[in-house]
Amino acid sequence: MIYNDGYEVDKDKRFARCPKCGNEEYSSEASFCRICGFPAYNECEGSVDYDEFGNTEGLHIHRNAGNARYCEYCGKLTMLFKEKMLLSYADVQSEQMNESPFPFSEVDEELPFN
User: pLDDT tens-digit profile of 11-54?
Assistant: First the structure.
């Protein structure tokens, strides 16, 4: 199954268009939309590194595709999914299962090929 929902991103995984306001202009170093302040990337919550004593050493935040609900690198939730801008995979599957592959709901019994 291919999940075609989500938002278009460029080669650096930055949104081609702001998911919130539709702005298409970002400076080359932008991390947020200049119009509404929405993040320019679908980043995950981040994974924490600990030293041998259990102390926090750092937080690794990863950039993800525009349809990612969970990070491919650490498995944490992505910003788009947390903000409810993407449906859960189960909801998308359910919607696709309910779509009829045949666009007509009624069959004309008088047609010779029925």
Answer: 999 999 999 999 999 999 999 999 999 999 999 999 999 999 99
Strand ranges for 20-103 from DSSP E: 42-43, 47-50, 56-60, 63-64
pTM, whole model, 2 decimals? Answer: 0.77
Nearest to 61 by CA among 51, 52, 48, 50: 48
Residue 14 exposure: Cα atoms within 13 Å on the Cβ side: 14
E strand segments, 1-114:
42-43, 47-50, 56-60, 63-64
Pull the structure tokens for residue 8: 């278009």
Residue 45 in tokens: 């919550």
Percent of the chain with pLDDT over 90: 69
Distance CA(31)–CA(21), nearest Å, equals: 15
The DSSP secondary-structure symbol of 82 reads H
Residues 6+ apart with CB under 8 A from 32: 38, 39, 40
pLDDT top residue among 86 and 1: 86
